């Protein structure tokens, strides 16, 4: 959703923050970690980057855009949230409501469905993963994405947009078992290159998340949720967020970096502070 500048107080908070920056003459200012406003609020100048498409899309942009639709298509595409539970969602499974329309809900953040992180727990559906799509021509996947298991109308996800998802499935999936321990759900120590991960974080992510990852907090009051918190608890989800960006938020993605670089980034961010008082 675009923020037209009518919401208060979030914008005022931002104005105050910018004023602080200006009067500090560019010196580093210790800005309090602010509990951020809805990630779906961003300025009109960011509407195109967050929800639109470039005139000549690169493969990297397409993979990230497809990955964001896989994560949450209505936030990615700025559409209405679907009403009610997805009729294709198994009645025996535990989730309900709009979330059951997300690809990740049935196929997992790790693309392994019932063989992966969702093999047990409240997200279990018994549905297989999407790894079988790897390497297939994207056009060949379109029939599956429009079959009875996938009751998405073109008003929800247009063909052109669904094709981005197909490209993502064909060329953008990574087997996370190489760097996540599936018993503990933690990043495996020694995966990737910590020093390289730190370099990427400090030069890109820190612009918004701060050097220690605590400048943005999307937790509930009294329950902080920083980059470090989430990387330690939900690395499979975070790998999607860093590869494709958080749908609807004005966040960059790391598709132009290699898979090895993204794993190195995971290694580093899993060491960032996860609470306020560390
Ligand atoms: C409500 C649950 C559900 C949701 C949400 C869902 N799918 Fe599926 N998907 C299924 C089921 C069921 C199958 C068939 C699995 C089987 O053949 O055992 C399937 C099959 C697939 C397959 C074929 C897998 C294979 O190897 O045969 C792909 C690819 C796929 N889905 C992609 C997606 C994408 C992309 C989205 C989001 C746009 C999505 N799915 C959303 C339930 C879901
Ligand atoms: C241009 C600003 C910007 C940059 C750069 C940026 N992010 Fe974000 N990021 C955001 C915003 C905005 C959110 C949404 C926060 C919220 O939900 O309140 C977000 C959310 C996240 C989330 C949480 C997603 C969730 O599940 O809710 C993670 C994890 C994350 N960013 C990691 C990173 C990493 C790692 C990098 C560097 C590769 C990065 N971000 C770069 C702005 C940015």
Description:
The strands form two sheets. Strands 1-4 form a two-stranded parallel sheet. It has a two-stranded antiparallel sheet with strand order 2-3. The protein is globular, with a radius of gyration of 19 Å. A hairpin with a 4-residue loop joins β2 (180-181) and β3. The chain has a domain at 53-176. Helix content is 39%, strand content 3%. It is built from ten helices and four strands. With 278 residues, it is mainly alpha-helical. The structure holds heme C (HEC) (2 copies). One heme C is lined by residues 36, 39, 204-205, 207-209, 216, 218, 227, 230, 237-238, 241-242, 246, 249-252, 254, 265, 269. Residues 70, 86, 88-89, 100-101, 103, 105-107, 127-128, 130, 132-133, 141, 144-145, 149-150, 165, 169 line the site of one heme C.
Summarize the structure.
This protein is mainly α.
Sheet with the most strands, sense and barrel status: 2 strands, parallel
The first-to-last residue Cα distance is 34 Å
Q: Largest sheet, order of strands side by side?
A: 1-4
Q: What is the helix content?
A: 25-40%
Bound molecules: heme C
Q: Provide mean pLDDT, rounded.
A: 89
DSSP summary: helix tally: 10
What does the overall shape look like?
A: globular
Q: Any idea what the radius of gyration is?
A: 19 Å
**DSSP, total strands:** 4
Structural class: mainly alpha
The ordered string of helix (H) and strand (E) elements is HEHHHHHEEHEHHH
The fraction of residues in strands falls at: under 5%
The stretches of 5 or more residues where confidence is low (pLDDT under 50) are 4-36
